[in-house]
Write a structure and sequence with these properties.
One of its GO terms (biological process) is L-threonine catabolic process. Belongs to the NAD(P)-dependent epimerase/dehydratase family. One of its GO terms (molecular function) is L-threonine 3-dehydrogenase activity. The structure is a single chain. With 318 residues, the chain is an alpha/beta fold. Helices cover 43% and strands 15% of the residues. The strands form four sheets. It has a six-stranded parallel beta sheet, with helices on both faces. A three-stranded parallel beta sheet has the order 6-8-12. Helix 1 links the parallel strand 1 and strand 2. The longest helix has 22 residues. The two termini are 37 Å apart. Bound molecules: (3R)-3-hydroxy-L-norvaline. (3R)-3-hydroxy-L-norvaline binds next to strand 9.
């Protein structure tokens, strides 16, 4: 069976239904440190309240459901980690250590996401290579690099089948953003439809690698289903879809909502984090080793996001 930690987060809210669709409702156990609010999309299937920093509780869930594969999504994201470093270290590092130790003890396979945040100001920003300098300036980035190294150590030292992706900024409409620096690219769609304007906390020319959530979910599943003999890398693969700036994203939205206006009120903390991240990624390793290929570019993502959000609101009448 499959256990997903951080299942109520931005990725988990879509990964759980995708796994349930593939493997059946009862084989996917969703878990989160928060209890399941009544209106969340994980309406059926097993759910457990689980704080990954509590190893005995993690072991209990892995045993109870005979877990064979663990998708470890529980983490404190970049902006929130700067505000709560102690919590971020505990969740992102002790939580990961517990997951790897329990996976080792119970013979589980593991997926652990990394991020473009694993790169820093001294990393080449254009077509950032798969193997390059990783000196991130954010605490979240430090935990992502440490996590990548810890996962590769477990693969090398103990033969643990642990794999990861360096997610770009992820854009989705199912769950609200969770404290990330790229969250402007999610909020902008909700505000564009609700009030026809959005005030961006990143400046107009901040170029970042982005990916539509359906591509990120497919990349995650395809990586976990890939033939391990072909993998020369494990933690973690660069995966790219498109890069854009807030100004370019606003212009794309205006193709659908001509009166949409974007304003800028820069948040120095998140601007400094974003400025330290790549502009574009070289994902040739993912393409060569497990056949990665994105499906959504900026135009396709924008059209689908607006269509999906409008449809949801038409139903819910927000
Ligand atoms: C964040 N969305 O902003 C996350 C991600 C690419 C950044 O790790 O923190």
């Amino acid at each position: 069976n499959i256990l997903v930690t951080g299942a109520l987060g931005q990725v988990g809210s879509e990964l759980v239904p995708a796994l349930q669709e593939r493997l059946g409702m009862e084989r996917v156990v969703a878990s989160d440190v928060r209890s399941l609010p009544p209106d969340r999309p994980i309406r059926e299937g097993p759910f457990e309240v689980l704080d990954c920093t509590d190893r005995s509780r993690l072991e209990e869930v892995v045993e109870k459901y005979n877990v064979g594969t663990l998708y470890h999504l529980a983490a404190i994201l970049s902006a929130k980690a700067e505000a709560q470093p102690e919590l971020a270290w505990r969740v992102n590092m002790e939580g990961l250590y517990n997951v790897l130790e329990v996976a080792r003890a119970y013979g589980c396979r593991v997926f652990v996401p990394s991020s473009i945040a694993a790169f820093g100001p001294s990393t080449p920003k254009d077509l950032t290579p798969q193997d390059t300098l990783q000196r991130p300036g954010s605490l979240y980035g430090v935990t992502k690099v440490a996590g990548e190294l810890l996962c590769d150590y477990y693969a090398l030292r103990f033969g643990l089948d642990v794999r990861g992706l360096r997610y770009p900024g992820l854009i989705s409409y199912t769950a609200p953003p969770g404290g990330g620096t790229t969250d402007y690219a999610v909020e902008i769609f909700w505000e564009a439809l609700r009030q026809g304007s959005y005030t961006s906390f990143l400046g107009p020319d901040t170029r970042l690698p982005m990916m539509y959530m359906p591509d990120a979910i497919r990349a995650t599943l395809e990586l976990m289903e890939a033939d391990p003999a072909r993998l020369r890398h494990r933690n973690a693969f660069n995966v790219a879809a498109f890069s854009c700036t807030p100004a370019e994203l606003a212009a794309e939205i205006r193709k659908h909502l001509p009166h949409f206006k974007i304003h800028y009120q820069i948040d120095p903390v998140r601007q400094a984090i974003a400025d330290s991240w790549p502009h574009t990624l070289d994902d040739s390793a993912a393409r060569e080793e497990w056949g990665w290929k994105p499906a959504f570019d900026l135009a396709a993502m924008t059209a689908d996001m607006l269509a999906q959000l409008s449809a949801r609101w038409a139903v819910q009448g927000v």
